[in-house]
Amino acid sequence: MRFAQSFELVPLLDTTLAFLTAFVLGTLIGAERQYRQRTAGLRTNVLVAVGAAAFVDLGMRVAGATEAVRVISYVVSGIGFLGAGVIMKEGMNVRGLNTAATLWCSAAVGCCAGTGQIAEAMLLTAFVLAGNTLLRPLVNRINRIPIDDRTTEATYEVSIISSREAMPQLRDLLVERLEAAKYPVSDVTIIDRSDETVEIVATLVSTAVHPHEIEAVITVLEQQATVINASWDGSTKT
């Protein structure tokens, strides 16, 4: 039997220790994610860590350290696809990036355990937990700082609602006024509002703006007889 020929007690103990380490450390990382009610929680992080440890350990036992390095590169690529599954885009907002990064780190912990670097796996786990917990108050404080439109790069949109007949002239006027104010336009979209009205939306190249300059453009547009409404908005969520 192949099992009887390949069975060795000491390597099996090493594998058991690697799996146990990946399981315990993955549990620590996953417990924090589960507490935060993230998409990838306790079981996912444990399975990622143990799976990475299993693949790397198998490569080590079958073909040595050289093959283990190749397996690690495949693990990194595979986790990239898994992480993409927890990233969700809602409008201009993106959610799940931190969870995906945590899965990536769980795989790294498993790889360390699979190569027998238990101390390094524990150290990496400590840094992952610190990043997800100790840095949270700092992130919250930064997020509460009022945004200064003059220093923050964002994506801004200027829109006007007008009659359908006046759309070509107002579209050109909108682009002309924005570029005269040194705000280049990256795209212009026409949205049907009704049989008689349309909305012209000009998306600016990502930049920082001076609100009073944009307001000046809006004031000029509102003075046009065929303009029903003019407004602008910006988003810093990318």
TrEMBL record:
Principal localisation: membrane
Gene3D superfamilies: 3.30.70.260
Location in or out of the cell: Cell inner membrane; Cell membrane
Molecular functions per Gene Ontology: methyltransferase activity
InterPro entries: MgtC-like_C (IPR048640), MgtC/SapB/SrpB/YhiD_fam (IPR003416), MgtC_SapB_SrpB_YhiD_N (IPR049177)
MgtC/SapB/SrpB/YhiD N-terminal domain segment(s): 20-140
GO BP, sorted A to Z: methylation
Transmembrane spans: 12-30, 42-62, 68-88
Keyword Transmembrane part of the UniProt annotation: yes
Positions in coiled-coil regions: none
Keywords: Cell inner membrane, Cell membrane, Membrane, Methyltransferase, Transferase, Transmembrane, Transmembrane helix
UniProt-listed Pfam families: MgtC (PF02308), MgtC_SapB_C (PF21770)
Domain of life: Bacteria
Entry keyword Nucleotide-binding: no
Function according to Swiss-Prot or TrEMBL: Virulence factor required for growth in low Mg(2+) medium and for intramacrophage survival. May be involved in regulating membrane potential by activating Na(+)/K(+)-ATPase.
Similarity comment text for this entry: Belongs to the MgtC/SapB family.
PANTHER family membership: PROTEIN MGTC
Name listed for the protein in its UniProt record: Protein MgtC
Lineage: Bacteria, Pseudomonadati, Pseudomonadota, Alphaproteobacteria, Hyphomicrobiales
